[in-house]
Design goal:
By secondary structure, this protein is α/β, with parallel strands linked by helices. The chain has 3 domains: 291 residues, Rossmann fold, CATH 3.40.50.150; 204 residues, no CATH class; 78 residues, no CATH class. Helix content is 48%, strand content 16%. It has 25 helices and 23 strands. Strands 1-2-13-12-3-4-8-7-11 form a 9-stranded mixed sheet. Strands 14-15-16-17-21-18 form a 6-stranded mixed sheet, sandwiched between helices. The protein has a two-stranded antiparallel ribbon with strand order 5-6. α11 links the parallel β12 and β13. α4 packs parallel to α5, α10 packs across α11 and α15 packs parallel to α22. The protein is elongated, with a radius of gyration of 35 Å. The N and C termini lie far apart (94 Å). The N terminus and C terminus are likely disordered. Bound molecules: S-adenosylmethionine. S-adenosylmethionine binds next to β13. The site of S-adenosylmethionine (SAM) has 19 residues, from β13.
Length: 632
C-alpha cells in the first residue's frame, strides 16, 4: 500500500512537472527561426508562435490570423534617426508608412489586448518633428484608443550640451487599445513602499506597531500592524530604467525590464506577445522568461540571427513570476521605480482637506460655545436620569453630546469629499448636482451614480424610498443627457458592512416584491465601498494612517482649549444652576422648558460670596465651609 501510494505520488509529481514545463517552456528541439514565409500556416499556431521571423513586418503580419495576439510591444525605427544602422523612413513619410502596419497590428490584436509603442520624435532643423503627435491622431482615426502614455525615464542617458535644449532623458511608451475594457493585472507590477514607508512608520508610536492582543480588541493595534506588514504599492506611469545597449550588439535595444514590466501588466501565462520590430530580440527573451508565447519579426538578417540566439539562450524563469523575487528585483538598481504612490496623494488630501478643516471647525464650534445656548439644546431629564451630580460632569456631558453630534456631520461631509477625490483621481469622477447623488463616474462602460452616507444604519423607510425615487429620476435625466449603456446606482457607506448589497426587492408588510428596475441599487459599505471606488481592497485601512498621525498632533491643542472651555462653562453653571453647591435641577428645568421668559439670577451662595468679598476683600474663602452640607 505504501509503495502504491509512493508510486502514485511520484507519478503525480512528474505529471505536474511535465505540465508546468509544457505550459512555460518552449520546446527547444523545434526550430524557432523562420526565413521562409511559406512554412507559416495561419491555421496552425505552432507554425508561427514561439518563432522569430525574418522579413518586413507589413508582409509577415499578413500571415498571422486575426485576433490572435494578447500584447504587442515594440520600438520601431524613430523615423530615419539610425538610417546608417538599420534604415528608416523620413519624418514626413513616417505616419503614412506606420499606419499601414498599425492597421495590420489592429487586425491581429485580440479585442482585450494592448499595444505598447515605444517611440520618440527626432529633432529636425532644431525643433522636434511632430510625426509622433500626428501618428497618435491618425491612429485614433484608425480606431485605436489612446489609453495612456507611460514615460521611460532613461536613468543613464549620455551627458551632452545642445544650444537650445537639454540632454534627452525620456521616451514615450504609448498605450493603445481596441476597446475600453482590456486585460490589466496591476498587482503584478506593484512596487516596494521604500523610504516613504519607513518615514511613515516613524510617525507611528512603538505600541501602535506592536501586535498587541489587547489592542486588537479595539481594532486599532491590529490595523496598524496590518499596515506595517504591507510592503507594496501601485507604481506611477514613469518607469525609471537604464538603457542597456552596450552589450547587446544592437544600437537601439531597450532594457529587458521594459518589456518585462508591460508583459506582466497586460498578459497572463500562456498569452502571446508580438514584437514586429524585434531588433536584438529583447521582447521575445522577456516573454519566454515569463512563460508567454512570443512572435518576433525583424527584417535585418543579422539582427534576426542575434534575436534567435538571445531567445534560445533565455529560459523560463519561475523566479520572475513569484512575489518574493519581484520584491528583490524591484529593489535592485535596475528596477528602482519611484517609491511615491497614489497613497501619498491620498495622505496629502486627507491631511489638508479632511483633518485640517475638521479641527478648524472643531475649534470654531468650541470657541462659540455658550452655556446658556447649549443647555437649551440638550435634554435635562436625560442627564438627571444618568444621575449626574457634579457640575463639571454635567457641563462636560452636555458639551461632549453637543460637539459629537456636530462632529459626525462635519467629518462625514469632509470624508465624503475624499471619496469623491479618490474617484476623480482614478476615474475622472465628479461631484453630482442630482438629488440624493453625490458622485458620478464612468468605468468599464458603466455609468455609476453614488449617494454617499456615513454609516450603514442611516435613514428610515421614507428616506430610503426618497433615495430610490431619486435614483430613478437621475437615471432618466442622465439618459436624456445622452448617457448610454448601463447606469448603476450605489448607496455607498463609508463604514460598516452589508452582506447583501444588491437591493432589488421592495419590502412590504407581507413579504417582498421585485423592485422597479430603475430603483434597483447596490449598497456598498466599509471595505467594499472603498474598494468599489478605487479597486483597492486596502484603501479602507490606509485612510486611518494620516488620520492617526494628524489627530495626535492637533488634539493636544484641542484638549487644552476644551479643558479651558469646560472650566469656564462649569464656573457659569455653578454660578446660575447650583443651590447649596448641588445642581439645582428645578431651576435648570425651568430655564429649559418653563413657559414664557425666565429671569436668571446667580445662585444665593454666589451672591453671598460676592457680598462677603465686598465687605472684606481680605477674607479667604474657606473650602471646608463650602463642603459643609449640614444645613442643606
Ligand atoms: C529600434 S530597433 C528595435 C530594438 C529592439 N527593441 C531591441 O531591444 O533590440 C528597430 C528594429 O526594427 C527593424 N525594422 C525596421 N523596419 C522594419 C520592418 N519594416 N519590418 C521589420 N523590422 C524592421 C530594424 O532593423 C531594427 O532592428
Amino acid at each position: 500500500m505504501y509503495f502504491q501510494l509512493r508510486i502514485i505520488s511520484v507519478l503525480g509529481f512528474k505529471l505536474m512537472v511535465d505540465v508546468t514545463r509544457s505550459l512555460f517552456e518552449v520546446d527547444e528541439t523545434r526550430e524557432i527561426f523562420i526565413r521562409d514565409l511559406k512554412i507559416i500556416d495561419s491555421k496552425d499556431p505552432h507554425s508561427w508562435t514561439n518563432k522569430i521571423i525574418l522579413g518586413d513586418c507589413l508582409k509577415v503580419l499578413q500571415k498571422i490570423p486575426p485576433e490572435s495576439i494578447d500584447l504587442i510591444i515594440t520600438s520601431p525605427p524613430y523615423a530615419d534617426s539610425r538610417k546608417k544602422t538599420y534604415g528608416g523612413i523620413s519624418p514626413d513619410e513616417y505616419v503614412g508608412w506606420f499606419l499601414l502596419i498599425s492597421l495590420e497590428l489592429k487586425r491581429v490584436l485580440k479585442p482585450e489586448g494592448s499595444f505598447i509603442l515605444n517611440i520618440k520624435e527626432k529633432v529636425v532643423n532644431g525643433e522636434r518633428h511632430p510625426y509622433v503627435l500626428n501618428l497618435i491622431l491618425e491612429m485614433q482615426n484608425q480606431g485605436w484608443l489612446w489609453t495612456e502614455e507611460y514615460i521611460w525615464h532613461k536613468k543613464n542617458s549620455y551627458p551632452g550640451k545642445w544650444s537650445n535644449r537639454f540632454r534627452d532623458s525620456w521616451e514615450r511608451c504609448l498605450h493603445f487599445n481596441k476597446q475600453k475594457k482590456f486585460k490589466m493585472f496591476q498587482e503584478t507590477v506593484m512596487v516596494p513602499m521604500g523610504d516613504w514607508a519607513k518615514s511613515r512608520l516613524k510617525r507611528l508610536s512603538e505600541t501602535d506597531m506592536r501586535r498587541d492582543a489587547s489592542k486588537v480588541e479595539s481594532g486599532f493595534g491590529k490595523n496598524i500592524s496590518n499596515w506595517v506588514e504591507r510592503k507594496m504599492a501601485y507604481p506611477t506611469n514613469v518607469l525609471h530604467l537604464a538603457t542597456e545597449c552596450g552589450n547587446k550588439n544592437h544600437s537601439a535595444a531597450f532594457p529587458k525590464a521594459l518589456p518585462l514590466w508591460f508583459i506582466r501588466l497586460f498578459t497572463e501565462s500562456g498569452d502571446t506577445v508580438l514584437d514586429p520590430f524585434l531588433g536584438s530580440g529583447t521582447t521575445c527573451v522577456a516573454a519566454k522568461e515569463l512563460g508567454r508565447n512570443y512572435v518576433g519579426i525583424e527584417m535585418n538578417e543579422k539582427y534576426c540571427e542575434l534575436a534567435v540566439h538571445n531567445t534560445e539562450q533565455a529560459k523560463f524563469n519561475s523566479q520572475r513570476l513569484s512575489v518574493h523575487s519581484r520584491d528583490s528585483i524591484y529593489q535592485s538598481e535596475e528596477y528602482n521605480f519611484m517609491s511615491e504612490s497614489i497613497y501619498q496623494t491620498y495622505y496629502d488630501y486627507l491631511v489638508e482637506n479632511v483633518l485640517t478643516p475638521f479641527y478648524e471647525k472643531r475649534f470654531e464650534k468650541l470657541s462659540k460655545l455658550r452655556l446658556l445656548d447649549v443647555l437649551k439644546r440638550k435634554n435635562p431629564y436625560l442627564f438627571k436620569a444618568k444621575n449626574i451630580e457634579l457640575a463639571s460632569d454635567f457641563v462636560k456631558s452636555i458639551v461632549d453630546a453637543y460637539l459629537s453630534s456636530q462632529e459626525e456631520t462635519i467629518f462625514g461631509n469632509l470624508l465624503e469629499n475624499f471619496a469623491i477625490f479618490v474617484s476623480s483621481t482614478l476615474y475622472n469622477g465628479s461631484k453630482s448636482e442630482l438629488n440624493s447623488i453625490d458622485l458620478e463616474f464612468e468605468r468599464d462602460n458603466c455609468y455609476y451614480i453614488v449617494g454617499i452616507k456615513s454609516g450603514t444604519s442611516w435613514g428610515n423607510s421614507d428616506q430610503i424610498n426618497k433615495m430610490k425615487d431619486n435614483f430613478k429620476k437621475a437615471r432618466s435625466i442622465l439618459r436624456d443627457r445622452g448617457v448610454k449603456g448601463e447606469i448603476v446606482a450605489v448607496n455607498g457607506c463609508m463604514y460598516g458592512k452589508d452582506s447583501n448589497p444588491l437591493k432589488d426587492k421592495k419590502k412590504l408588510k407581507k413579504g417582498t416584491i421585485d423592485e422597479e428596475p430603475d430603483k434597483i441599487y447596490y449598497k456598498y459599505a466599509g471595505q467594499e465601498f472603498w474598494q468599489f471606488l478605487s479597486n483597492d481592497e486596502n484603501l479602507y485601512q490606509e485612510i486611518i494612517i494620516p488620520i492617526d498621525k494628524e489627530a495626535k498632533q492637533k488634539d493636544e491643542l484641542f484638549k487644552a482649549t476644551y479643558a479651558a472651555k469646560v472650566n469656564e462653562m462649569t464656573a457659569d453653571f455653578t454660578n446660575y444652576f447650583t443651590r447649596n453647591y448641588h445642581i439645582d435641577w428645578a431651576k435648570l428645568i425651568d430655564y429649559v422648558s418653563k413657559k414664557g421668559k425666565v429671569l436668571l439670577e446667580p445662585s444665593q451662595e454666589q451672591t453671598s460670596l460676592l457680598l462677603d468679598e465686598e465687605l472684606d476683600s481680605e477674607d479667604i474663602f474657606d473650602l471646608s465651609d463650602a463642603l459643609d452640607l449640614k444645613d442643606y
